Amino acid sequence: MNELIRRTAAELAAAIARGEVSAEEVTRAHLERIAAVDGTIHAFLHVDGDGALAAARAVDAKRAAGEPLGPLAGVPLALKDVFTTKGMPTTCGSRILQGWIPPYDATVVRKLRDADIVILGKTNMDEFAMGSSTENSAYGPTRNPWDTSRIPGGSSGGSAAAVAAFEAPLAIGTDTGGSIRQPAAVTGIVGTKPTYGGVSRYGLVAFSSSLDQAGPFARTVLDAALLHAAIAGHDPKDSTSIDAPVPDVVAAARHGDVRGMRIGVVKELDGEGYDPGVRRCFRDAVELLAALGADVGEVSCPHFDYALAAYYLIAPSECSSNLARFDAMRYGLRIGDDGTRSAEEVMALTRAAGFGAEVKRRIMIGTYALSSGYYDAYYGSAQKVRTLICRDFEAAFQRFDVLVSPTTPTTAFPLGERVDDPLKMYLADLDTIPTNLAGNAAMSVPIGRSPDDGLPVGLQIMAPAMADDRLYRVGSALEAAYRERHGRLLIDELATASAEEGR
User: Fold this and answer.
1) SS in 3 state form for 46-70?
2) Residue 79 in 3-state DSSP?
3) Which residues are the active-site residues?
4) Which of 205, 260, 343, 467 is deepest in the core (most CB within 10 A)?
5) What mean pLDDT do residues 235-248 have?
6) Residue 498 clears pLDDT 80, i.e. is over it
7) pLDDT tens figures, 10-31
8) 424-457 pLDDT, tens per residue?
9) Distance between CA atoms of 117 and 109, rounded to whole angstroms?
């Protein structure tokens, strides 16, 4: 394994800025890594080698000319294929958008380019971000680098796997019900869902507009903070964007200290159905937080028990509205347009062929929940539950600075195990959904490997809206304590094992 690809994003950026290595060398090393392992991992749907090298050379030219470089200039990144990218395909993991090349960049993409971050390509995902395993992609599943017979989480599994497999030091995902945090947990990396509205959704192809949020993946808390800072901020193109200063997440990540912090363990998110190994790792981490000086206590959020049911009414309802735009008339796939069929027939044929089973399932659920005579009973009731969950958070944050729970009830499960059992699949997001419903900030940090199967376990940290810096403060403290206890980070164990196996 090339030494360059084992370095953190912060280390790479510093080395590039000092001229110790060129951005082009760093990019080539990661492109070579992709070529070597992605045939097995399948993290990428599209690799833009020429574009990435051109962007890297531009960074090298800026450095040679003495121009100032940003904190992540020249660092490669993998981008979830749900963001519009000018000159690159955007498929959302769906056949219905196969081959579509958008005419504009999403705001997140523009900010990445402005920061001189090198975009390597677009990563695999559950179709339209609907799934917890990246098995719902029209282009085949992604595999977990820790065990390629297992899922990498979803829907941002391609982005998470790219970082865990050392194909990229950074990645961008989206989180609607846990789609950054859950993949981060099961692949042993850091993943953050910023406060809703903290990162622009302009150009993010919508699944559920009141829940979707873009955020960073990285192998360290500091790297995640640097990327978070690069993509966050107000955007007038997004009506839900928050016009307020971005919390100083980088400073929090550099000086993680939980002494005096009040940390609440959510009673409802640590019970039946959790793997014993996950619970053991979680409790060890909570004890560690207490040993580091935090004031740890239990808190009850009683309406969290209804979050999963409310989410699976709200999200499909918004999905049924958002996906109506894919009508075979303007862009994307078109089936049966032979001159003999009506527009309605072409639309029906295209949607039947272009959407996968999970997307169709959610469209039907959402359309039913919004239908006349059922709106109040289903969608309206779910929104009332959402309000109660928000109130639970408000009450809890009066007592505690942050809340914690396992990120997901289990470690990575085998590919194919849950594809025929949607309800069991949905339970992967049991811990993460409440934060999306409330719009708060949350993060998953690795806390070790389950003694049951040796697979990574994540701890979820939840903070109030626009208090994202608290996530990085706690996450950094945990990361430093883990490194001190074990002599290295969890992801370094995978790097060492991969190098020994010649991967």
Assistant:
1) EECHHHHHHHHHHHHHHHHCCCCCC
2) strand
3) 80, 155, 179
4) 205
5) 97
6) no
7) 999 999 999 999 999 999 999 9
8) 999 999 999 999 999 999 999 999 999 999 999 9
9) 10
